[in-house]
Every structure is written in C-alpha cells, then in structure tokens.
Design brief:
The protein has 18 helices and 9 strands. By secondary structure, the chain is α+β, with helices and mostly antiparallel strands. This is Tetratricopeptide repeat-containing protein.
Length: 399
C-alpha cells in the first residue's frame, strides 16, 4: 500500500500556498541517509551527521523495509517542495506524515539521544529514560519534525538507537535526517555575541566622546553582522578589527539619509557638552563625527564657533563663523558670533560695524537682533567674559 500521488501533491500545496517567508533552507549537504541492518532481536546505534550552526529544527524519517522493498523518494527530495518548516509548525503537522511510503510488515522500536554514552547505555540495556525522543511501541515507519524547545536540539548531533521487533529475521532500516538552517541563526550572532561587539565599540575614541553611544554602536554592529559571521569576526586580527571599527564608524556617519537620525543625535550631544562647559569634548565630537565626514552645515559651523569662542580660541572661532558664512551668508547667527569674537578680541570697530549693520533685523522669526545680542552678552558674562564694551553696543542698538 502506498500514498497516492494526488494526496501527496495536496499535502505539498498546504505548504506552498501558505506563502511563509523564506528564512532558511533544508541543508541537503549535511543530511543523514543511512541504511542499517539490525540483527534479529538486537539493538544498534547510529549517529547523525553534524548539524550546521543555525539548525533550529530537523525532520527525520525511519522506514523499516522488507527485503525487496525500495524507498519511493528520498526525504531531501520531498522536503525541497516545502519552502519553510514554519508551515509545519503552524498547524500542518499532519502533512509531514504523508512524506513517506508505507513500509512493509516489519517493525522496530527506537530512541533518540544527544549524548553518545546514553545511547550506548540504551544499546546494552534498552532503557529509554535518558532519551530526548523515544518510541516504545514498534512501528514500521515514522516521520517527525523536531522543533521548538525539544531537548534533541541541544546538541550538534543526535544518536538514533533501534531495537528490532523481529526475533527471527534481520531487519533493514532506512534512517534519514534533514536539518533546517535558519539563515540568521547560522551567522552565529547570538545576543551574547552581539553584546561583546557593543561593549568593544563603547570603548572606542568616538564613543567615549558621546554622552550616549548606543545609536552609533548599534549601527556599527549591524554592519559587522551583515559582512561577517561571528566565527569570521573572531578570526580577524586585532588590527583588522580596529580598521573595521573605523570603516564601519565612517559608514555610519556619512551623509546618506539612513544616518540622519544618528547625526541628529550627535548634534544634540554636542549641545549637551557645550551646556555643561565641556568644550573640549564638544569640539572633538564635532570634528570626529561631523566635520571629518563632510556632514557640516552652516549651523554646525556656528556651534563649533561657539565652542572655540567659549574656550577662548578666538582665531579658530572667527574662522568657523567665516567658513559658515560661505555656506549661508544670510545666517545672522554666524554674523553675530563673528561680532562677539571680534569684540572679545579687542577689535571694537569691526565688531561695532556688524552689530550696527543688522540691528533692524531678526535672527529668526521670533527673536530680534537686539534681543539676541542682550541674551548672548548675559551668557558670556555668566561664563566669565567681561568687557567694557557691552554697554556701548547695547546703547548703539537702542539709538
């Protein structure tokens, strides 16, 4: 008796019409296919092929054949028609059992172990207490999917023990085991392994400049997991890892749109450093993350100019404001920053000309030039920048 072709094709359609996402593959290269002869009334143990990294489930088929019987199709060839084992896991388990041909009259018992010693104990004693799967009722065929939290998935290989149910004649048993490899899991990037990369990234120079390096290090990690398996990553030399971190960091900070969120976060952290008077860190973070990667806009030049101004590096501050003017000559904050720098550098006449020129304008839709000058002078005084010329400029603006 055999399963009809019509019924088999119907079973396959259960899977193909489900349209489950392809997340892995049946690994035919590391499938087990063994024909075993079991002497009458005895037990034998057979080891599977090693499961590849990323094996999340496997299918096995056991068929007890009469002397002249042949298998209809190999298990691998049948499984090729099933794109994803999640179809089995989600309600179609019964279809798996249509993947084997009805066997002959002979039957056997079996048990599956993850430990060689336990399987050898079964061979001598027949005890199944230590098995991850066992079948104490003799069967002529068996097809099962092993998935989820099965203890049989806790080892890279399994051992099948068979006990003949024929006390007179030897038996021929065909064992087939096919692993399903999850593509993502096969890279070896477990949460623990990812954590090790994140921790290493957090010690990098750029990450140390940031108040929160999570967004940067997550981006770097994504590139490592895309380019390397974890095993390949571990085999990199120290120098190769360091270069990869630099290259991936640069990729995360270039001007492409995918990095806008990270660049925005860095600019926010620059402002946090500035507000806390950590001007050195603010300057270094801007140089490393914004200017070095060609991401600077006129507002970045203004921010960096303030960093230099408040750290009393007046020449560099003026240079920043003037470079920003080349990008946007209409940005009055750049003009204002330049005027402040000239004033504090004792170049009163040039500063006065700038303050006077824009006194009738707004620096933005809500703040007038005069209001912003008063606020900036108050901030400069608070930071320890005293000047006898502040009052002169205020009077100039009010005339």
């Amino acid at each position: 008796m055999t399963v009809s072709k019509t019924i088999f094709l119907s079973a396959v359609s259960v899977f193909t019409t489900s349209l489950f996402a392809q997340t892995g593959y049946w690994d035919k290269d590391r499938a087990t296919s063994r024909e075993i002869i079991v002497p009458a009334g005895e037990r034998v143990v057979v080891k599977s092929e090693n499961f590849p990294l990323g094996t999340t489930e496997f299918v096995y088929r056991i068929t007890v054949l009469d002397e002249n019987q042949q298998m209809a199709n190999s298990l691998v060839s049948l499984l090729k028609s099933i794109p994803d084992p999640s179809g089995i896991s989600q309600g179609s388990a019964g279809a798996v059992f249509l993947l084997s041909k009805i066997s002959g009259d002979d039957k056997c018992k079996y048990a599956v172990f993850t430990d060689k010693d336990k399987s050898e104990d079964y061979r001598t004693s027949g005890k199944t207490e230590k098995a991850c799967i066992y079948q104490n009722k003799a069967v002529s065929k068996e097809v099962k999917l092993v998935t989820g939290r099965s203890l049989c998935l806790n080892a890279p290989i399994v051992y099948f023990g068979f006990e003949s149910d024929n006390w007179i004649m030897k038996q021929k048993i065909v064992l087939e085991v096919v692993p399903w490899v999850d593509k993502k899991a096969s890279t070896g990037w477990t949460n623990e392994n990812k954590k090790s990369v994140l921790e290493l990234c957090g010690t990098s120079g750029l990450a140390q400049l940031m108040t929160d390096s999570e967004s940067l290090c997550t981006c770097v990690l994504d590139q490592f997991t895309f380019k390397y398996t974890f095993d390949e990553y571990q085999k990199l030399l120290v120098e190769e890892k360091a270069k990869a971190f630099r290259d991936f960091g640069d990729n995360c900070l270039d001007s492409k749109s995918a990095n806008k969120g990270l660049l925005t976060a860095i600019r926010t952290q620059v402002q946090q450093h500035f507000a806390a008077a950590r001007y050195d860190k603010s300057i270094d973070l801007m140089n490393s993350a914004i200017f070095a990667n060609g991401n600077a806009n006129s507002k970045d030049y203004y921010s960096q100019g303030l960093n230099y101004l408040y750290s009393r590096q007046f020449t560099k501050a003026r240079q920043m404001f003037e470079e920003g003017e080349k990008l946007d000559d209409s940005d009055l904050l750049l003009k204002l920053g330049k005027a402040h720098t000239l004033l504090l550098s004792d170049d009163f006449s040039r500063a006065r000309d700038i303050y006077r020129k824009y006194k009738g304008e707004n620096v933005n839709t809500a703040t007038s030039w005069k209001e912003r000058v008063k606020k900036d002078f108050a901030d400069l005084k608070k930071a320890g920048f005293d000047s006898k010329d502040y009052d002169k400029i205020i009077k100039l603006l009010e005339d």
